[in-house]
Amino acid sequence: MSTMRFKVAFSTKGRRTERAPAPPEPSSVPVSSTARQLALAYWIEQRIEEGRLRDLAEAARLLGVSRARMTQIANLRLLPVAVQEEILAPGFKGGERRLRSAVRRLDAERPLEHPRRHVAVVGSSVPNYEGDPNV
How do residues 47-68 score in pLDDT, each as one tens digit? Predict the structure, then answer.
């Protein structure tokens, strides 16, 4: 049996080669974990609306977090828009603990519109608003 050897040269001349787009340059300012959690909260909400997730409990199971933690993350969506924008701004350094205290201060500064609507009558399953001038 004889062996034959050949020299073969491959060239890309005349052929178009497609290259994958270059990955974006990493940001010089790191994204805060709170901003990531806020984005996650909106992502989960969208999946629930699309029907891809049944509820927050299913999301918690898939992400490997407790249902209580999942509720905390989902509640970030309920923050005032100005606070959410500040969280998403580059260089945000506040953590969740600081954020909670800031929201508590905001809540203390603006009173409830109808405080009696948020307090149930003792011994009754339905609040009684009869005779309340605020209702």
Answer: 999 999 999 999 999 999 999 9
54 lies in some domain: yes
CB of 62 closer than 8 Å to CB of 122: no
- What's the total number of domains in the chain? 1
Cα separation, 126 vs 119, in Å, equals 10
In-domain check, residue 78: yes
For residue 64, give both structure tokens.
């490997």
At 126 the pLDDT is 46
Give the Cα separation of 34 and 93 in Å (integer). 9
